[in-house]
Predict the structure of Porin family protein.
Amino acid sequence: MKKSVLIIALAIFGVTGMKAQEFVQFGIKGGANFSTFTGDGIQGFEDPDSRTSFNVGVLAEIPLIEDRFSIQPEVLYSAQGFDISDDQQDNIFDVDDNVEYQLDYISVPVLAKIYLVDGLSVEAGPSFNFKVNEEIDNAPLQDGGDTDVSDVSAVQDFEIAGAAGLEYKFNNGFFIQGRYTYGFSDVVEDYDVHNSVFQAGIGFFF
């Protein structure tokens, strides 16, 4: 799986080497994730509470029509999952309060980016997500408390999602961004359960 992530990342960012460097901008970004599951495929997990976590990664903007249209590939670490409510704890888990189900991905969005006015753009496209971590954390604000459940889980290792959002880029390369990502693939095969993630972040193009 890690080799697949590396191959995709190299392919996406390697394409930019075919274009003159003056046209391609590389950047870094990070921000907050507000994630949960949506759907009604597993009893006890209808609309669970959201988990607040983070995303961080690198990106490139490849202009196709100057100042109007670009392709923006990214490679992100996206920490997702949900908070386990008291009812879910009673019904499913034998744990204390303040518990998180942590489901983290290496995400590779490839977005079409259209500028509406100078600096302001809308973006949308597919995201190819690879599961890299799955655990129950009964002390998310402290060290320890993590229980790896990936070996006994039925969660799929790969997900295809769709992402859409808004971005404003300042003249100095700094940008702010808001985005929503929805998993088209079932989190668990043949069950109507999907990842749902709101993201807010900042970044900088060099």
